[in-house]
Amino acid sequence: MTKNKSHIVLKTQDLTIGYTSKKAKTVIASNINIELHKGELVGLIGANGIGKSTLLRTLTNVQHKLNGNISINNLPLENYSNINLAKVLSLVLTEPLGSKNLTVFELVALGRQPYTNWVGNLAVEDFEIINQCLLQTNIDDLKHKKCYELSDGQLQKVMIARALVQDTDLIILDEPTTHLDMYHKAYILKLLQKLAKETNKTILFSSHEIDLAIQLCDTLIVMTKDTVITDQPCNLIEKGTFNNLFPKDLIIFDDKTGSFRVKK
Amino acid sequence: MQHTKTYKRTFAVLILMLLLCFFGNISLGSVSIPFQDVFNGLIGNATENESWRHIIHEYRLPKALTAIIVGSGLGISGLLMQTLFRNPLAGPFVLGITSGSSLGVALVIMGASVFGSTLAGILVSKWSIVIAASLGSFIVLLMVLILSNKVRDTMAILIIGLMFGSITASTVSVLSYFSSAEELQQYIFWGFGSIGNLTWHELFILFVIYAIGILLSLVSIKTLNTLLLGENYAKSLGVNVKTSRLLIIITTSLLAGTITAFAGPIMFIGLAIPHMTRQLFNTSNHKILLPAVFIFGAIIMLICDSIAQLPSSDLTLPINAITSLVGAPVIIWLLVRKRKMMF
Fold first, then answer.
1. What is the reported pTM?
2. Pairing with B129, which of A9, A57, A223, B76 sits 20 to 30 Å away (CA)?
3. Which residues of chain A lie closer than 8 angstroms to B285, CB-CB?
4. Residue B94: which of B232, B219, B212, B248 has the closest Cα?
5. Does any CB of chain A come closer than 8 Å to the CB of residue B226?
């Protein structure tokens, strides 16, 4: 695999994340050094409450960092205006849609907003991009359906298509596989893998599907209590990183199968 | 490539209905004027009866125009609020705008006896009521705006608006307890709403502010569509949520505040029109919904006003009662039929 290592899409240096209240700073994680390259599928894994969401919120500028640097395409995150950030970073969130009374096409088309005129009229090339993304996410047959008619799995594909249409170098998804059955979990992650390869976009997602992430991701970001490690899945298995992911009283990681099993 | 329906035919039918209702509204009333003469009167030709021309010009035309402004303006402010708060129960009243106006008017009409000489000197004229209503809604809006800058959550603003509503309602109750029967009656009459008392001069002032509000609402179309996804998605699409929220609130206040000032608190229209329109057009896309609400609001208001005039009788019913009597059953029927309230 010849990966262009020179093009780093997302980079953090000595990043510290957490919350500030009036008096105290609560540090959730520190010393986070991540480098994500073009065309990579990256999984962010860690136990509940370890700070995955906080990290994603900080990376997407929803929440302020406490310390360190974040840069997207070699430009510090804080230098981006709202509209310029929307052209390099798109999101798929866990929050429910405000209104589902839009057709799939209308919803996906909203992804073109950073590029459209003041009333949001679509140009010919916008239509082309939208149709292409509908095909890439296998939802072309759904485009005239209303969003309230869709299943959770279909809706997730639509939200991914919407992010894709935004045509950004980096797509960040917050737990895209929750509420989905086993098949659709694999389906969505496999789709993300395909999209990363086909479109050369960098896709970062947080997930609890560790075994799937190990099989599909180019890189994994593993958050444990003390450290944040970024590496290729096979290296992480060799280093035994997954053994420290959870408290050891209930489940253990099996190096051979690359998955967790319950202690007997 | 036509992926989004443009509803050209529905719009054509609606515009035709609007024209029909407009002429119908002008020809109906205590004196029935034939269509032909209405048309002649409007374009300035001679009518069969000179008094008809006077009725049309000085009374019915301004009233019909007011109905259009009230219906479309309140409908659009309701639509803006429902999308901003992503709540089907929102309407112009949620920000406390209407209650602010009510408080202003109550203070002018009933405050005189409560506060004695300080306000007694003010003549309770129509202009003082208009100014009081505008001031009242403006002050409530200002407070909501100040608080909304401190509160991140849009839902919290909704609650704050409702709380302002409660505060003003109870203040009005306290005032009415101390005021005379005459003052109370005057206040209640204002509360009935009225669109028939505007002179051309007043109508002009109302129109200018209304036009600014409508233009501002057009600027928000794109933002409104992204807000359908939720505020975080809107932000990720490059929308400055705080600024857009402010713009939408100001637009609503301009529209609802001025209309309430001139026509009294017209109930129901702001809440119901967007829902009725959504049932008709079956979309949440504001590029279609906004003009549709505009036309539909105007039609419904013209119809309500025609009913309130009780054709061929000298009686005039309070417009507020009609808007609720006509509209509420329609909404119930729509909900029972569709089983769902979309927004």
1. 0.88
2. B76
3. 102, 106
4. B248
5. yes
